[in-house]
Structures are given as structure tokens and as C-alpha cells.
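Quick start: what a row looks like.
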Amino acid sequence: MSVASMQGGRFAPTEPVGWDRMDLLRQVDDDFDLAVALMEIFLEDAPQMKSDISVAVGAGEAERLACAAHAYKGSAAAIGDRDLRGAPPSPHRGTRSRAG
């Protein structure tokens, strides 16, 4: 989703599946400018978070993967992503790299 689709105080009807704009607005007390700022931050940070996940998978580093996935899931949930919010929790404890 691009921030451009949120112009004029209205969201485009083609928002991503699983994304709940009303949840995001509730989380920020209907502060549209704050909602837009959060979306901009997420859209800026998401490519690096996805890359961190891919690198951890490629390297077989389970602990690094768990941390990267948790960061991405938390960021997505903060902007109203319903799909990731319902995903299983990231395994933080007891996770060890098989490479080491």
C-alpha cells in the first residue's frame, strides 16, 4: 500500500487484504496524520526487515530469524495488519542456530 492511496483523509478501496485501517486509526485515536506517519515508517523499514528475514533463512540462523520475524510481525501489527497479528508467536527462547 502506498501512502498516496491515503490522500485526502480517505483510504483507497484497494487496501491490502488483511489490513485493517480502522484498527490503525483506533490505535492512534483517529489521528490521521499519525496513521500516515506510521505507514510511511513501516513502508520505509519493511524492505530491510524482509531482507533480514531472508538473510537469516539463507544462513540457517534460527535465533536471528526469530528476532527478525518478531520485529516484522510487531511492526505490521502496529499498522493494523490482521494476518500477521494472528500468526503464531515468534520463538524467542530456546532457539539456537544449527550452523553453530
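That is the whole record. Confidence is low (pLDDT under 50) at residues 1-7, 92-100. The two ends are 39 Å apart (CA to CA).
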